[in-house]
Amino acid sequence: MVLMGIFSNPVVGGIGTLIRDFIQSVNFVTGISGWRISRNGDVEFNAGTFRGVITSGGLFIYAGPPVFGNLIAAIAPLAGVDPYGNSYGQGLSSASNGLGLTFNDYHAVLGGLFETRLGISSIHQLTIRSPSDSLGNTAEIRLSGDSAVIGSETFGFGAGVDGLYYAEELLFPQITILNATDTNYLCPAAGRVNSNYGSAYNAVTGQWIAPADGWYSFTIPIGFTTNPVANGRLRITVSSGALATGTIYYRDTLPFLAGVPLEHIWGFRRFFNKNDTVFITVNQNSTASLTTVATYNNHLTMAREL
Q: What's the pTM value of the predicted model, to 2 decimals?
C-alpha cells in the first residue's frame, strides 16, 4: 500500500526524493526561528545536538546571514574564498574584514572564576587579559610586532621588519688609515655575509641605523697588511656622527709596538633606540699609513639581543 498516494501535494516521492523546493516548520523565519530543509542541500536549524562524527570540507562562522563581510572565522584545509566573496586562510583563521579571533579558557577556582583570554587581531596584535577583580579591574598584556604593552608601560623588542630577529655580518674591509687621521670604518656592499631581514648598514657612508629599540652587540675586528714602523696606539670610536663626532657610544685605545703584527677584535654592547645612527672610526699614530687586511677571517657583526 502506497500511503503517499493519498496526499494531493506529496512532500517526498516514493524513492525518497524531496519534491518541493523545501520543507519547513510553521514558525520558520530566516535567521530568527524555526527550521528549514531545502532540496538543494541547504538546512537551517535553531539548535541541534550531534552525537557522532561531523565531516565537513570547512567550517564557516558568520555574524548574521552568510553574506559578504559577515564571515567571522573559518576552519578549512586550504585557503580560499567562500560563495559570498569572503577570503579565509588555511587552518583556523579570522576573516579579512577587520575582525579578530578571541579564545577564552574559563576555570572555576576557589574564590571565583579564573579567566585566560587570548586575542589575535587583524592588526598583528596578541592580547592576554586577566579576569576582572571585585572592583572590575583587569590586567592586560598586548604584544605586537616590535613592542609589548603591560599596563601603562611599553617595552620594545624585535628588530628590522616587525617581529623579526636582526643580525648582520659584514666582511672585514680593506682601508688605509693615515697617520693621526680619523678614518671611517667602511665595509664593502658586496661583503654582506648574512642578514636575516635586510641590511641596516650603508656601505657608502659607513652609517648603521638601529632598526628597532633594543640591546645590540657589536664585534669589530681589525688587522693590518704590514707591521707598524713605530710604537703607537690604535684608537676606535663608535659615535652617532661620522669621524668620531656627535654622541660617543664607545671608545677604546690599543697600544702597539714597532715591527709587531697587530690584530685585535673589539666587542661592546649598548641599548639603541630605533633610528639611532652609528659610525665606526679608527685612528692610529704609527707615523706612517697602515692598510687593513681585507681577508681577515672575522666579520663586523651587529646583532640585537633577544
A: 0.49
Q: What is the pLDDT of residue 272?
A: 93
Average pLDDT, integer, range 242-248:
95
Residue 48: pLDDT band with limits 50, 70, 90: confident
Q: Where are the domains of the chain?
A: 14-48, 55-99, 101-143, 167-304
Q: SS3 sequence, the chain?
A: CCHHHHCCCCCECCCCCECCCEEECCCCECCCECCEEECCCCEECCCCCCCCCCCCCCEEEECCCCCCCCEEEEEECCCEECCCCCEECCEEEECCCCCCEEEEEEEEECCEEEEEEEEECCCCCEEEECCCCCCCCCCEEEECCCEEEECCEEEECCECCCCECCEEEEECCCCEECECCCEECCCCHHHEEEECCCCCECCCCCCEECCCCEEEEEEEEEEECCCCCCCEEEEEEEEEECCCEEEEEEEEEEEECCCCCCEEEEEEEEEECCCCEEEEEEEECCCCCEEECCCCCCEEEEEECC
Architecture per CATH, domain 167-304, reads as Sandwich (2.60)
Residue 36 in this model has a pLDDT that exceeds 50: yes
% of the chain exceeding 70 in pLDDT: 67
